[in-house]
Amino acid sequence: KVSAEIINEILSLGKSLLNMPIELLPGVEETLRTLKQSNRHRLIVATKGDLLDQQRKLQRSGLASYFDYVEIMSDKTEKEYAKLINTLQVPPEKFMMIGNSLKSDIQPVLAIGGYAVHVPFEVMWQHEVVENFEHPRLRKVKRMGEIVISD
C-alpha cells in the first residue's frame, strides 16, 4: 500500500516536470529564423510522444511560429514518415529531416528516399544508439549552426 503522502509527492514530481524550463540548444532558433526568412522551405516539426505534452513543449519553447506544420507521431517509422510526406504532398527526394537520433529521425527518412542531417546530442537513449551509420543522402554536423541548405 502506498500512502497518500507518497502519492502526493509523486504527483508533485510529475507536475514539476511539466513546468521545467525549456532550454534550447545553441543555434536552434537562429537556424530556424534563417530558414524561415529565406522563404524557400516549409518547416515541419515531426516529433513523437504524448500529443498534449508535445504541443505544450512546442508552445513553451517559443519556436512554434517558425513551423508551417506540426506532426506528433506515436512512433517514428518509415510508414509514419511516408504518411507525413504524403499528407504534405512532398516527394521523398524533396524531404529533409534534421534530427539527433539516427534510428528514429534519420534511418526511416533515408529508407523512404529522403535526405537527412544528423545533429548528435550528448545524451541518447540506449535503444536509439546506432553505430557507424553512413549513407549518401546523410550529412553529419556537430551543431545546428552548421546547417546550410541549398538547392
Describe the protein's topology.
Layout: H1 4-18, H2 28-38, E1 44-48, H3 51-61, E2 69-73, H4 78-88, E3 96-99, H5 102-111, E4 115-118, E5 138-140
Q: Biggest sheet, strands in spatial order?
A: 3-4-5
Q: N- to C-terminal separation? A: 62 Å
Helix content: 25-40%
Structural class: alpha/beta
What does this structure look like?
This protein is α/β, with parallel strands linked by helices and 151 residues long. It contains 5 helices and 5 strands. The strands form 2 sheets. It has a 3-stranded parallel sheet, covered by helices on one side. Helix 4 (78-88) packs across helix 5. The longest helix has 15 residues, at 4-18. The protein is globular. The protein starts with a helix and ends in an 11-residue tail after the last strand. The mean pLDDT is 88.
